[in-house]
Write a structure and sequence with these properties.
Elements: E1 2-6, H1 12-20, E2 25-29, H2 32-41, E3 46-53, E4 57-58, H3 60-69, E5 73-81, E6 85-88, E7 99-102, H4 104-109, H5 111-117, E8 122-125, H6 129-138, E9 142-146, H7 148-154, E10 157-161, E11 170-177, E12 187-194, H8 202-211, E13 217-224, E14 232-239, H9 245-254, E15 260-268
Parallel strand pairs: 1-2, 1-3, 7-8, 7-9
Antiparallel strand pairs: 3-4, 3-11, 5-11, 6-9, 6-10, 12-14, 12-15, 13-14
Length: 271
Amino acid sequence: MKVAYLGPPGTFGEEAAMRFAPDADLLPFPSHAAVAAAVESGMAEFGVVAIENSLNGSVAETLDILVHETDLQIQRELVLPIVHNLVARPGTRADQVQVIYSHTQALGQCRRFLERCFPKAQVEAALSTAEAATLAMKHEGSAAISTERAAQLAGAEIIARGIEDSSNNLTRFVLLGRGKHPSTGRDRTSIAFTFPEDRAGALASVLNEFARRSINCTKIESRPTRATFGEYAFLVDFEGHVDDPIIVDALAAIRPLCAELKVFGSYPRWQ
């Protein structure tokens, strides 16, 4: 089995992929969009993408892929503890660091550490935490925020460990694939929907259909439709599987209220 993930090796995406499928052939790709494209094209059976972080919130790129760019279904979810480290060329002292590289998510998750310990350092975005470690090895006077594995692969030295702003730093990853995951009796479903017009009570009318059936909605947010400024698609996660009779009934009730309704998948809940 081949599983695509946001590479290069050493990223949290690789760690998530290894937990999803320990015996799989792992294929690194440069973006979440490329991961989805790899699965759609048949290069991989599954793809791992980050969808939400406990500190920074949702990963907009992944949500937009699900809303606008793919019909792949979420198969599983995984919540992974995130530990960030400051790494650099061996022998580099903290007072020599002038530039710090990392993925934008990692930079945001270590904001307070950077402001307090490296207020004068230039911060540069990288495609991944693993690429950041490689960049730090190439440039004197630079460092990176990366995983321990990425530091080992790049030959970098860890200057500081556990620099994330919160010890409760968790990222939710999802496994994308073709087809529908069978019901397990303990599932979550993710959907997105739009409305034919902007009117008061439109969103409440949909949520009320879940409430009157005692369906627990665990998350709700919005993303631009990309069609008209000020128009949004609403994304909702709720407990249950699309094959459960009560969920079938709820989706049938809300479908006439929506201009579009898209199911991202039903999958086993992590917890």
